[in-house]
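hey so u asked for the seq, here:
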Amino acid sequence: MIYFKNDIKTNAPRVMNVSNPTHEHIILDGWFEYVENPPSYDAELEKLLPTTVVDGVQNYEILPIPPDELEAIRKAQVPFAIDPPQGRILLNRLGLLSQVNALVDNSGDDDMKIFWEFATTWQRTNAYINMMGALIGLDDLGIDNFFTQASKI
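ran it, structure tokens below
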């Protein structure tokens, strides 16, 4: 076990007037257990609260992030727009490009066809993006994930 006190780290702290100190002696002398790596946690699902030290042991409390806060975090991470080539490449990699092409061609919606062929950017809030997402079975979260993945291409 490693202990720290006054910016000193050691596995054998000296305690005044004790030749073979126990953990309790070391803690009572003002040393703390040194934790090199804090616990890991999923930033999307949980948050790490400030630590406390009890009897020389560093403690962490991990709590779920409230749903409304989690939704705000997720939305902040979704790109506002992607380029059509990024979207088409991802659709192709997912094996969905030919399906989307067919759905757009057979939709009977001339405006959607124009958007699909000539749009220079795909904005996440665009109605045609949401319609195409729904046509291939994506909900809001699915479209958000699609935009996040496509932005990395």
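DSSP finds seven helices and nine strands in the chain. Residues 1-34 form one domain.
lmk if thats what u needed
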